[in-house]
Each structure stands twice: as C-alpha cells, then as structure tokens.
C-alpha cells in the first residue's frame, strides 16, 4: 500500500512539473511570436515611401535600394526562418522535449535581436536622410537670406569697412560658391553630404557676420579713437614737461611709439579681416593708454600735495619738537615724586633722537624739491613717509603724556583703596567681638596679624618719595588678598563656633540615658574652651553617632531650621 501511495505522489509531482514547464515554454513562444510580429509591423515601408518623394538619384537612390533589399531580406528570409523555428519549438514541447525546446527558444531570441538591430538601423538611417532633406530645405533658405543680407550691408556701408570690404566680398563669393555646390548635391539626391556642407557654410557665415559686426567698430577705434587718445597723452606729456614736471622716468614717448606700431599692425590685420588678432592688440592698447593717463594724473596730484603739504610739515615738526621738550621737563618733575624705570623715563629722549632724524630727512626732501630734479611722485612718496612718521611720534607722545597723568591718578586711587581696606579690617574686628567667641585659634590670629602687616607695608610704600607705583600696586594687591582670605575665614570661624556650641548642647541630652557619652562630651567642651572648635565638633559628632545612629540627622534638621528662623528675623 505504501509503495502505491509513493508511486501516486511521484506521478503527481511529475505531472505538475510537466504542466508548469510546458506552460512556461508556451509563454516564451508566445512572447517571441509577438516580438516577431512587432518587428514585421515596423513602419519601414511607410518611411521608404517618404524617400520616393525625394530626388531618387545619386546617394539617395543607392541608399534606397540598399534599405529596400535589407527589408525584403527581413520579410522574405529572416521572418519565415523564425516562423519555422517557432513551429519546431512547439513540436518539441508536444514531445515533452523541454530542454531542446528551451535551447531553440534561446536561438530564436538571438536571431530576433539581430533582426531588430537591422530594422532599427534601417529606420535610423531613413530618419537621418528624410530629416536632412527637411532641415536642408529650411536652413538652406535661411542661409541664402543671410548671404543676401550680408551682401546688401557690404554694398550699402562699404566705406565703413575700408580695404577690408574687398576681402569680405571675396569671402562671401567663396561662401556663395559653396552654397551652389550644396544646391547641386541636393539636386543630385546627396542629402547627407549636402547636410555636412551646409553646416560648414553656416560656421563660415557666422565668422563673416562677426567680422562685419566688429570691423567697423575696430576701424573707428584703430583709426580715430585710440590715435586721438594717444595724441592727447603726448600733448599732455609735453605741456607738463614745459610746466616743470620731471617725467623721463615714465618713458611715455618710447611706449607711445610702440603703441603706434601696434595700431599700424592692427590696420594691416583689419585689411585681412583678422578680427581676433586686432581685438587682442586693441584691448592691450586701451589698457596702456589708461595706464598713461593714471601716471600723468598721479604726477599732477603729487605736485599739488607736495606744494600744499611741504611747508606745513616743517611747522608740524617744530611743534612736536617743542612739545617733546615740554615732555622732557615734565618727566624730570615727575621723577621727583615717582620712581620711573629706565624704559619709561627714556621715552622723551628716544623721541628727541627720532625727531632729529626726521628733521634731517625733511631737510633733504626740502632741498630736492628746491632743486627741481626729482619727479613729484617720488617726492610725494617721501613726504608721505615723513607724514606717517610724524603721526607715529604724535601717538607715542600722547601715550607718554597719558602715562604721566595716570601716575597721579593711580596714587589717589591706591590711597582710597588702602583706606577702604582699613575700614574692612575694622568691620571684621568688630564682627568678631560682637560674636562673643570663647577664644581665637592661633591660625586665625596669624591671619589677622598678616592682614595688618600688609596694610602697614602698603602704607609705608605709599608714603615713600619718590613713589614707586608698581611696588605700591603689588603691595596693595597682596593686602587685598590677605584681607579677603581673613574675611572668608572669619565667617567660617563664627559658623564653626556656633555649630560646635549647638552640637554640644544637643549631645548633653544623652547624658541621662547614655552615661558612656559623658567623657567624650567633656573632651569636646574642653576643646571648645581652648578655641579648638574643629576638634570639639569631631569629638561631639563621634559621641552622638555612637549612641544614636540617627542623632546627627536630627541635629542637622534642627540646626537648619533655627538658622532659617534667625535669617528671617534679621531680614525683617
């Protein structure tokens, strides 16, 4: 029975496999047949009909015959061969030869791909030919119109092109001749070759039209505008030399001759219609002329400023020399009251030496101006250097003056700060007394003594003559640091005394219930009376925690609450 059931199952599996494989192969055959039909219905005949409307001669006739032969081969040879193989594949499926059928289908698919490439190639070439004919017809008319308009413009405005007109005319004749060849190729049915020629003619016409746009403009610049500007530069140069300007260093005459030669080359280029070369030279010539204008203008401005500022500079130097003399005298007076280091006290002497060198530089400049042998642009550069040095010296003088004024101000401020620190120490002393502390620890006494010592030392330095403000500032900063430290420690000490006193009182509650705590609390009280408040706190806390693990938490809560009530009462 088991063998029967197994055989049935195998048979069923085999049957299902056959059905699925048969269906899969049949589907593939249908797909290949549809592709064959689609290729057979490609619009090749319709496109070939369009070609028949063209001039069926030359290249067109040859291409038409080739395309028709290739299409006929597809229809009469390739497609029937595909039909035969499809029929063969169906027969193999009926015979359950699925492997062979699959191989045949793959062979059919490969052949269909080859046929598709052949058909696509035919249609592409047909489109190029028909499209070329249509574009050639439209663009050819446009090109003919462009050539006609160019000739009209050349005829109407011939004088604006000068000798280049004859060359342009020849170029137009060449373009027209090539256009006639284009017409002949079209007439002979060579549309693709005609298309290539037309594109070349378009490029040539673009160049000719660009030349016709630029040549009149360039001729105006080369023959009129630039020569006029150059002449203006040369005339201005001569007039300025007559007025006493020294301009040999500019070499304008030499550069002007070079520019004239360049403009002459431009005229030759324009006759040959070489526009690009001309535009490069014209651009450089414009830059050079603009540069010449700038150079001459710079000399005019330099002369104006030299004449305007030179005399004033001498007066300003005299002013800063006089002011520096006052600074030297004031420094000597200040040194009687304040100590100045070498760098600080030497500033006026250093400036005096710099002013001396500046005077010598000015004398040399004044002499060169009087000799009239140096270009004003060079003189003005030297004058600006002197002006910059004067500005820097004035800045240093003002800075040193402010420094001297600051010394007295610093002295007053230091005295006020010292007085403020004394008052602060008095407040600290008063606060300690009002706190009724049992005693003061040795470390606190040392800090208080240090603070008083720093105040006294600062006062000593502040009363010295001459006064050393740097030393005063250092001593004052040391005193402020010591007093700030004393302030913080005072607050800590008062709080520590209060805390230890409250904790001892809290601990005394345990004496009746825990007699063992008595000895530790006694030690804490002794430490408290000897001003060892830290040790008193430690002994008391250890004793309380030993007999009651939650005692310190209750004390902390109670103490915090008392502090809050006290702070609230003080604020009211």
TrEMBL record:
It comes from the Bacteria. It is found in: Cell membrane. Residues 1-2 are extracellular. Residues 469-496 form a coiled coil. Keywords: Cell cycle, Cell division, Cell membrane, Coiled coil, Membrane, Septation, Transmembrane, Transmembrane helix. Its main location: membrane. One of its GO terms (cellular component) is septin ring. InterPro entries: EzrA. Signal peptide: none annotated. Residues 22-572 are cytoplasmic. It is a single-pass membrane protein. GO terms for biological process: division septum assembly; septin ring assembly. Belongs to the EzrA family. NCBIfam families: PRK04778.1-7. Negative regulator of FtsZ ring formation; modulates the frequency and position of FtsZ ring formation. Inhibits FtsZ ring formation at polar sites. Interacts either with FtsZ or with one of its binding partners to promote depolymerization. This is Septation ring formation regulator EzrA. It comes from Domibacillus mangrovi. The lineage of its organism: Bacteria, Bacillati, Bacillota, Bacilli, Bacillales. The gene is ezrA.
């Amino acid at each position: 029975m088991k063998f029967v059931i197994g055989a049935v199952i195998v048979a069923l599996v085999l049957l299902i496999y056959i059905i699925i494989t048969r269906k899969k192969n049949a589907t593939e055959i249908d797909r290949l047949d549809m592709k064959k039909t689609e290729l057979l219905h490609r619009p090749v005949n319709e496109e070939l009909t369009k070609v028949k409307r063209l001039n069926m001669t030359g290249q067109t006739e040859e291409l038409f015959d080739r395309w028709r032969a290739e299409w006929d081969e597809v229809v009469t040879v390739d497609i029937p061969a595909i039909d035969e193989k499809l029929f063969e594949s169906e027969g193999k499926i009926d015979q359950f030869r699925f492997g062979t059928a699959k191989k045949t289908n793959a062979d059919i698919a490969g052949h269909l791909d080859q046929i598709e490439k052949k058909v696509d190639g035919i249609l592409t070439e047909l489109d190029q030919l028909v499209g070329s004919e249509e574009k050639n017809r439209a663009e050819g008319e446009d090109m003919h119109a462009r050539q006609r308009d160019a000739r009209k413009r050349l005829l109407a405005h011939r004088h604006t092109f000068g000798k280049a007109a004859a060359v342009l005319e020849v170029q137009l004749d060449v373009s027209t001749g090539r256009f006639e060849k284009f017409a002949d190729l079209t007439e002979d049915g060579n549309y693709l070759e005609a298309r290539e020629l037309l594109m070349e003619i378009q490029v040539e016409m673009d160049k000719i039209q660009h030349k016709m746009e630029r040549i009149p403009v360039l001729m105006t610049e080369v023959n009129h505008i630039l020569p006029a500007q150059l002449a203006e530069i040369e005339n201005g140069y001569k007039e300025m030399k007559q007025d006493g300007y020294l301009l040999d260093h500019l070499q304008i005459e030499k550069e002007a001759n070079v520019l004239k030669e360049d403009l002459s080359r431009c005229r030759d280029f324009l006759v040959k219609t070489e526009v690009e070369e001309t535009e490069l030279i014209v651009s450089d010539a414009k830059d050079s002329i603009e540069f010449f204008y700038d150079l001459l203008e710079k000399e005019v401005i330099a002369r104006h400023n030299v004449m305007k500022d030179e005399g004033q500079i001498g007066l300003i130097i005299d002013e800063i020399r006089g002011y520096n003399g006052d600074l030297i005298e004031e420094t000597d007076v200040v040194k009687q009251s304040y100590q100045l280091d070498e760098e600080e006290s030497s500033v006026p002497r250093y400036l005096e030496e710099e002013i001396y060198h500046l005077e010598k530089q000015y004398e040399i400049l004044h002499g060169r101006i009087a000799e009239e042998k140096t270009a004003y642009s060079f003189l003005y550069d030297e004058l600006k250097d002197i002006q910059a040095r004067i500005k820097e010296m004035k800045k240093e003088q003002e800075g040193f003056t402010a420094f001297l004024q600051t010394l007295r101000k610093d002295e007053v401020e230091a005295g006020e700060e010292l007085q403020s620190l004394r008052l602060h120490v008095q407040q600290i002393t008063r606060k300690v007394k009002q706190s009724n502390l049992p005693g003061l620890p040795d470390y606190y006494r040392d800090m208080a003594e240090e603070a008083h010592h720093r105040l006294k030392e600062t006062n000593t330095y502040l009363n010295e003559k001459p006064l050393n403000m740097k030393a005063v500032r250092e001593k004052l900063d040391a005193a402020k640091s010591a007093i700030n430290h004393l302030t913080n420690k005072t607050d800590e000490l008062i709080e520590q005394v209060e805390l230890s006193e409250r904790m001892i009182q809290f601990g005394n509650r345990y004496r009746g219930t825990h007699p063992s705590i008595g000895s530790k609390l006694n030690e804490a009280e002794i430490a408290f009376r000897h001003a060892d408040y830290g040790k008193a706190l430690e002994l008391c806390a250890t004793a309380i925690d030993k007999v009651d693990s939650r005692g310190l938490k209750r004390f902390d809560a109670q103490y915090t609450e008392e502090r809050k009530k006290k702070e609230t009462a003080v604020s009211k």
